[in-house]
Predict the 3D structure of the following.
Amino acid sequence: MQTLIRHLLRQPNRQPPTCFECGYQDSQREGWYDRKTGELAPGFSLSKGDVCVDVGCGQGGASMFAARQKAEVIATDISPEVITRIEEKFARLRTPWRAFVSDTDPLPLADGIATRVIAMEVLEHVESPDRFVAELVRIGQPEALYLISVPDERAEAVQQQVAPPVYWQPPNHLRVFAAGELEDLLKRHGLVIERQLAKSFFWAVWWILFWAADQDLREPERPLLQFWTRTWHELLKTPRADHVRRALDECMPKSRVIVARKPGAFQ
């Protein structure tokens, strides 16, 4: 162990990876953000001719991927500040796009407008998951694909112990989806489950350490988070990285992800 520590201390000074870079690399290892296949997530591809509605678009990573795949993109978020930043990013695009503020209750979009619908890490924030999903289903064409994720209940159980009370107050997390609840919700509104994924032990631990470090999102990562990011970055270089990463993702993923489909008109 001492030999290993001395070796690490002798490593040349290099710019450490950010948590976002490390998380992106981690996701790519599992088939996310694959430009060759056009898959934003395994089983959820985008291409020219698709109309993609990204609800609760956040930083816009999914929307930008869809745009780079030549899809038309409609991005919505409840935050005006978020939409302003998205508009600045989209201004450089040559593909059709729209971005607007909406709480999704209802969405100001026509029935059946979308071939792809994304709602990642949004359902835990909304007052009525049933109304929210009904709107997502309404705007989807027959055979539209849906990419929907929520925080996993195992990671959230730890968050309930370490996160401050504000984490569980509006506009933050209002609920934790227990095993099977998201699937039942989507099926109740007529969607067919195509694939289920467990995603990102890396981010599950990062958020736990975030509270331990008393981190401010507006500031650079503090040493505790930097060391965790670097540890995971080094793991990804090892021969058994994917085996270890998948085992940990199954143990305590940050998110549970579902790819679903809206049945065709005659099914």
Notes: The first strand starts at residue 39 and ends at 41. The two ends are 61 Å apart (CA to CA). The beta strands are 39-41, 44-45, 51-55, 72-77, 97-101, 114-120, 140-151, 192-199, 255-261. Confidence is low (pLDDT under 50) at residues 1-12.
